[in-house]
Amino acid sequence: MAALRVVTILGLLAMTLIHLLDLPGTMGPDPVQGTLYLLLMAASLGAATRLVHATSLWRFAVPAALAASAVTAYVLTRTVGLPFDHGDVGNWNDPLGIAALFVEGVTIAAASYGFALARIARARQSDMSRPPRVGG
Asked: pTM of the full predicted structure?
């Protein structure tokens, strides 16, 4: 489980770095995309910090949701565009975009697996705390 935490944390930090590198180009006349980048970066750093200490079952759910939202936004900007960004429609070869998809995919996989393992561990712990059934 510790390895999944590390991979998920590194994924969140890499997502933050990739969006930080792309940020200057998003703060033009309509800074909605840049603002969304800033929110994603802040949420990713917060989720990474929380993942270091949290023991909640949901500690892996937020990183998976953040990465999935970034993938969804990327696909939308490359297919139909967003109300504030039509400039990237069809731009599937952007190196930062490809790096982002890779990192977000790894983050989703690690966080989802961590969440599944945490659910299994919680269920086992709950089963062990119940008194044994009498009379079968």
From this structure: 0.87
The secondary structure of the chain, three-state, reads: CHHHHHHHHHHHHHHHHHHHHHHHHHCCCCCHHHHHHHHHHHHHHHHHHHHHHCCCHHHHHHHHHHHHHHHHHHHHHHHCCECCECCCCCCCCCHHHHHHHHHHHHHHHHHHHHHHHHHHHHHHHHHHHCCCCCCC
CB-count burial class (<10 Å; 0-12, 13-18, 19+) for 89: middle
Tokens of 99: 């790096």
Q: Are 126 and 116 in contact (CB under 8 A)?
A: no
pLDDT digits (tens, 9 = 90+) for 18-74: 999 999 988 876 789 899 999 999 999 999 999 998 778 788 999 999 999 999 999
Residue 113 tokens, joined: 């697996």
Show the tokens assigned to 46: 């917060």
